[in-house]
Amino acid sequence: MSELFNQFTRRKFLLTASLSASAVLLKGCLGNPPEPGGGSAQTQSAVQPVANISPEQKPEITKVKLGYVPIVEAAPLIIAKEKGFFAKYGMTDVELSKQASWGSARDNVEIGSAGGGIDGGQWQMPMPHLITEGLITKGNQKIPMYVLAQLNTHGNGIAIASKHQGKGISLQLAGAKSLFSQLKSTNTPFTAAQTFPAVNQDFWIRYWLAAGGIDPDADIKLLTVPAAQTVANMKTGTMDAFSTGDPWPYRIVKDKIGFLAALTAEIWKNHPEEYLAMRADWVDKNPKATRALLKGIMEAQQWLDNFENRKEAAEILGGRNYFNLPAEILAGPFQGNYDMGEGRTINDKSMAPYYWKDGKGSVSYPYKSHDLWFITESVRWNFLPKDYIANNGAKAKELINKVNREDIWKEAAKEAGIATADIPTNTSRGVEEFFDGIKFDPEKPEAYLKSLKIKKVSV
Fold first, then answer.
1. pLDDT band at 227 (very low <50, low <70, confident <90, very high)
2. What is the DSSP letter of 41?
3. Is 353:369 a contact under the CB 8 Å cutoff?
4. pLDDT attached to residue 237
5. Per-residue CA distances from 50 to 86, 87, 289, 294, 344 (Å)
6. How far, in Å, CA of 226 to CA of 135, rounded?
7. 78, 344, 416, 419: which could form a disulfide with 340 (CB 3.0–4.6 Å)?
8. Contact, 13 vs 53, CB < 8 A?
9. Hey, where are the domains in the chain?
10. Contact 181/173 with Cβ under 8 angstroms?
11. What is the pLDDT of residue 231?
């Protein structure tokens, strides 16, 4: 058991709930809880006619319960239901269940839909791997899960409390190091929060800080705060940083609570974001239904990547049953238009969220090399033991091969008639490069760790 998962028990997650907070947010990996009146189960609208499904493709079951958090990463699930893409492939009874937090999603997938929970849904990485290993479950129970698709890229960023405007906090932190040092020396350290440890939004803020020469474990105070506290706590002015997802950052900037220092699209262009993952026992029992779900999601992802559809997408997601906010708050970021605060704007479609294809190829396909990066970052911060990446990541790759079912994605893509050119032939996307010039070669994870100046593991 790693140091992290001994430290962050369920009770300790709750202890931070009363903390007051203002804001840096890492735009995207965790959103806010359901608004009052928002239902768990959504009703299907604009249903497409069911496709002429051959007997060998007809799903074994038409019912499934998927969890989601109300941020743009959930869009493929919501659009697949509301536009009838799930029903088109025979999944006529898909229930989408809004989760108040990632901890709730974890708890609900532990018990499964038969116990009143969920069968799977939207996840930060590497939560499916950690749940499979029993590292974040009750009693360390191992609950095998399968990663089936990537849901999106981008849709995330880092924001700073308004009190730090004009102090040089931006993508490059060289000009702000003295501020962090000064706050630390006066026993009032820069205080940032994320909503679940050792997953996407924790990694984004850690990478950004460390690239600027700031140790997230020694130079600042990094807390876990439940999502229910996000917007309210940001207004109090007692925190310097926070992490949440579109569409909430736009609201925070417009309310003059904070400003965005950077988009994660600037930190790592075309980076992997959140994923569809299911309980392995559900998939093993329902292989045809699994492929039907994937085909519906693939069609939704392609629909979302037609920018002419994004106005409608914003209206659907903004509805009372889902995000419960004005559609215009979603519409700008969906087009790559970001008000960053401090008088800075970004108008660049390549910085928008993508769901089917981005500048490096497939978004939907779950590259195993990306799983390896998330696990390597876990080792970097001592969330997982170093042996996971020893011998070129042999132990990590064994886990990835068990959890990542890219083979099922390919089967579904072929059934859906996806063009051969859009079906990757390699489980690695190759070498990745970050804004600070650091490169991650999935063939050499230990070399990547050695290249990083700030880390908690010695290599």
1. low
2. S
3. no
4. 74
5. 9, 6, 14, 15, 47
6. 19
7. 344
8. no
9. 7-162+192-365+407-426
10. no
11. 65
Is CATH 3.40.50.12780 the classification given to domain 7-162+192-365+407-426?
Answer: no
Report pLDDT for 116: 97
pLDDT tens digits, one per residue of 63-72: 999 999 999 9
* φ/ψ of residue 411, rounded to 5: -60, -45
Contacts of 65 (CB under 8 A, 6+ apart): 95, 97, 113, 117, 118, 119
252 or 259: which carries more pLDDT confidence? 259
DSSP state of 95: E
Question: CA-CA-CA-CA torsion for 439, 440, 441, 443, nearest 10 degrees?
Answer: 150
* Alpha-helical runs (H) found in 214-340: 230-234, 248-254, 264-267, 280-285, 287-304, 310-317, 328-334
Can you tell me which residue has the tokens 């290599």?
459
DSSP at 418: -
pLDDT band at 9 (very low <50, low <70, confident <90, very high): very low
Residues 362, 348: Cα–Cα separation, whole Å: 20
Q: Which residue has the tokens 């809004």?
A: 98
Sheet with 63-68: list strands edge to edge: 93-98, 63-68, 120-123, 275-279, 145-150
Token pair 């493929």 is at which residue?
Answer: 76
Distance, in Å, from the CA atom of 283 to the CA atom of 60, rounded to the nearest integer, reads 11
Each residue of 302-346: pLDDT tens digit? Answer: 999 999 999 999 999 999 999 998 999 999 999 999 999 999 999
